[in-house]
Model the fold of this input.
Amino acid sequence: MSCSTALKKARPLHTVVLAIGNTLRGDDGVASRVADLLGERSGVEVRRAHQLTPELAEEIAHASAVVFVDADPGAVEARLERLIPSQRRSPLTHSVTPGELVIMAERLYGFQGVAYLCRVPAERFTEGDSLSEVAEAGARAAAECVLGLLDGAGR
Amino acid sequence: MPERILIHPVTRIEGHAKISIWVNDAGGVESAQFHVTEFRGFEKICEGRPLHEMPGLMARVCGICPVSHVLASSKAGDALLGVEVPPAAVKQRRLATFAQVLQSHALSFFHLSSPDLLLGMDAEIDKRNIFGVIEADPGFARRGIRLRQFGQRVLELVGGKRIHPGWSVPGGVQTAVTAAVRDEIGAWIPEALESMTIALGRMKSVMDSFREEIEHIGNFPSLFLGTVTHDGALEYYDGVIRIVDAEGNTVADGLDPLRYPTYLAEASEEWSFMKFPFYKPLGYPGGQYRVGPLARLNVATSAGTPRADRELREFKHRSKGAVCESFHYHLARLIEMLHSVERIEEIVADPELLSEDVRTKAMPNRREGIGSCEAPRGTLFHHYFVDADGLIRKANLLIATAQNNLAMNHAVEQTAKHFVLPAQLREGMLNRVEAAIRCYDPCLSCSTHAVGQMPLIIEVRSRSGELLDRVEKG
Done:
């Protein structure tokens, strides 16, 4: 687990956690599992999104922090990191990336908060609603990372 | 001199595709092809599944227009059960249809096509995207986002989810609409109507600067096919099929969508995974027809709502016959969005929407069922065969984007011949070829029932197939 970057930050006043992925494509739905583990907390809005779409920019704009949680087949451990907003040179499709969504929120709705990306290890993306052992363990570790951020641990 | 120019992948559409432009000995464009390079085979996945699972399963065909698949599937299920769907359920399904047209068209127009329209076809490629639009006119971009948000919110409120709502089932829908839901939807209407007035005005104001594109990007005679009411008005959920030609003459009218195999057929080409539907009486490829916003406005004699009717009358004055310019898909899309907002306003004002009688239950009573509706991109058909236990034995999906396949190929060839100078290749030339495709807002995930994104590559090949040059975007 690698949470150090986020854990140095003060507890955000209002946080949106955005769990990204398709729960019918195996580990792609691991972020939803992380959302389940976070439960309900004061000042925290947990949302699930099949994919990121432009209208979510307005919906995250009011937050002081937004945490994107997503499956990452390249991650060997759960990792929470500051997201540096960036855009692809030529956005191509109907969906947007976390960095692009943050740019939209900043430029269109005045978002001034901080953004984090929580990468969750994932390895199996076939049809089905169950998680691999790697993803299940990753979800628990990722939830700890996010909870650490939400609790302001490490201040 | 390049002999084959390949655009691969095509950008700002949904799915994987490439375009080949073949160069002749004189150095001009000889021909062009639009290839769809992805395949998923959803029809095969359906086999063996229970009938009642189908709408939920079919919602997964597409993340952009899942409601159309849910509804065509539900209607095929209605037919297999042999039941009459309660009126409140029909109103919910219609409400979801208009919400989906609104959100899908908003994404197409504001997110994918407005960079070309507002910034110009030759604008710097790094700027010619939604972020360029945000920089140039953030207020306009916000309106686009809010319109899509409205459509998505309606789907979330009525269907339970923004993407892949599965609330509609054979025989009706699963839940009633509450007064609170109705009121929340109604509260969005004034802003949405204002945004549509602004968007239509903006679109019309820039059209003069695209005269050459209007004339040469996919401007050709073809048939147009769409659903209308029995008195010829614009219709999306139920009705009959009307076909008109380029002169605006009615070629066929009152066709039963449930009998589509008698007048539509599909051809295949080895160079594309997407099929090539055609109008049977005129054969292949002569039976080329177009579907979607432009086709629907060409076949409809009225819109049936006051604001959209005014726009439709003005639209029809653009041609003595049918409006054949593919570029006008954009304007047609905006008129349909306005119409959708008006229809949503009508439906939420109807007290019957709140009825709790929303589902008729039955066991399968027939072995074959067809459901059709108008998806954002055109007419959609789901055709199922079941066994005695209600398990799917065979499924055929005739998708809107595939029905525009011949037209999209025609459009890229015409556009390439006019705009592409192989010896002096510039990005803006190729962007116009892509723009020809974007007019149709194809959803290749649907049309091949495949998953994927739509990036763009342009390759230049010699007549022997040797790769001479390659440009990749994304």
Observations:
- Chain A touches chain B at residues 24, 50-51, 53-55, 57-58, 87-95, 100, 103-104, 107-109 (CB under 8 Å).
- The beta strands of chain A are 15-20, 44-49, 65-72, 79-82, 114-121.
- The first helix of chain A runs from residue 4 to 7.
- Residues 4-8 of chain A have pLDDT under 50 and may be disordered.
